[in-house]
Amino acid sequence: MEKKAAAMGAAARVSGIVREFQKKCDSPIGKLHNVADSMAVEMRVGLASEGGSMLKMLISYVDNLPTGEEEGLFYALDLGGTNFRVLRVHLGGKGKGLIKTEFDEVSIPPHCMTSSSHELFDFIAAELARFVATEGENSHPFPGRQRELGFTFSFPVRQTSISSGTLIKWTKGFSIEDAVGEDVVGELNKAMERVGLHMRVTALVNDTIGTLAGGRYYNPDVVAAVILGTGMNAAYVERANAIPKWQGPLPRSGDMVINMEWGNFRSSDLPLTEYDNDLDVASLNPGEQIFEKMISGMYLGEILRRVLLKIAEEAEFFGDSVPEKLKIPFILRTPHMSAMHHDTSSNLKDVASKLRDILEINNTSLTMRKVVVELCDTIATRGARLSAAGIYGILKKLGRDTRKDGEYQKSVIALDGGLFEHYEKFRQSMESTLKELLGEEASDSVVITHSNDGSGIGAALLAASHSQYL
Question: Where would I find the Hexokinase N-terminal domain in this sequence (predicted)?
Answer without folding.
Answer: 18-217
